[in-house]
Write a structure and sequence with these properties.
The structure holds 2 protein chains of 2 kinds. By secondary structure, chain A is mainly β. Helix content of chain A is 0%, strand content 52%. In chain A, the strands form 2 sheets. In chain A, strands 2, 4, 5, 6, 9, 10 and 11 form a 7-stranded mixed β-sheet that branches. A 4-stranded antiparallel β-sheet of chain A has the order 1-3-8-7, with no helix packed on it. The model of chain A has no long low-confidence stretch (mean pLDDT 92). By secondary structure, chain B is mainly beta. Chain B is built from no helices and 11 strands. In chain B, strands 2, 4, 5, 9, 10 and 11 form a 6-stranded mixed β-sheet that branches. In chain B, a hairpin with a 4-residue loop joins strand 7 and strand 8. The model of chain B has no long low-confidence stretch (mean pLDDT 94). Classes of the chains: A mainly beta, B mainly beta. Chains A and B meet through strand 4, strand 5, strand 9 and strand 10 of A and strand 4, strand 5, strand 9 and strand 10 of B.
């Protein structure tokens, strides 16, 4: 089974621009979660999508948004980029069931640098 | 609000040593706890998942324990190897949703 894929792997943008990141989950998985990783704040939860609906949301400003398509692929968008948005953005895939055994699998991440 | 702490932040050991990484969390009402490994600049690799009703899980040289009532988990690595060098992260899932709360990680270096 192919793992979680994220594109692009690296991005360089300037302040004020917007960016879209993509995540393809493991085949059959319906839940996609997004995390931001920075040296100062560590790993922080952005949001989770399940069956094209946002199911959970972290404490990030409205500039961060996402969506999920019918094939479970997900995109994350950041508008009006700020220097502090420079981070590794990680996507996690899981079956999405509400049961307790629900292991999450992470992709390689997209490294975003804002200049 | 759930807070997860990992001690130590960094650890350096000689090859062959057995070691223990610690993870503590403030809210014991968790669904499960997952240990991950992260190599520099890479994504996370899942190592072990422990359900809230379990006490421990084993995979090869790795053993993870969970004491939910005291808010603690440990990851035991037996006979460490240089290839084990990485950052180890623990994360707790608080409820039926998939949101994970991560600790700050322990950066492990195993010297040949």
């Amino acid at each position: 089974k192919a793992g979680v894929t994220q594109t692009p792997r690296y991005l360089i943008k300037t302040r004020g621009q917007q960016v879209t990141l993509s995540c393809s989950p493991i085949s059959g998985h319906r839940s996609v979660s997004w995390y931001q990783q920075t040296p100062g704040q560590g790993l922080q939860f952005l949001f989770e999508y399940f069956s094209e609906t946002q199911r959970n949301k972290g404490n990030f400003p409205g500039r961060f948004s996402g969506r999920q398509f019918s094939n479970s692929r997900s995109e994350m968008n950041v508008s009006t980029l700020e220097l502090g948005d420079s981070a590794l953005y990680l996507c996690a895939s899981s079956s999405g069931s509400q049961g307790w055994y629900n292991e999450q699998f992470f992709g390689p991440g997209t490294r975003l640098t804002v200049l | 609000k759930q807070e997860v702490t990992q001690i130590p932040a960094a650890l350096s050991v000689p090859e062959g040593e057995n070691l223990v990484l610690n993870c503590s969390f403030t809210d014991s009402a968790i669904y499960n706890l997952q240990w991950f490994r992260q190599d520099p600049g890479k994504g996370l690799t899942s190592l072990l998942l422990i359900q809230s009703s379990q006490r421990e899980q084993t995979s090869g040289r790795l053993n993870a324990s969970l004491d939910k009532s005291s808010g603690r988990s440990t990851l035991y690595i037996a006979a460490s190897q240089p290839g084990d060098s990485a950052t180890y992260l623990c994360a707790v899932r608080r409820d039926a949703g998939n949101m994970l709360t991560f600790g700050g990680g322990t950066r492990l270096m195993v010297k040949p």
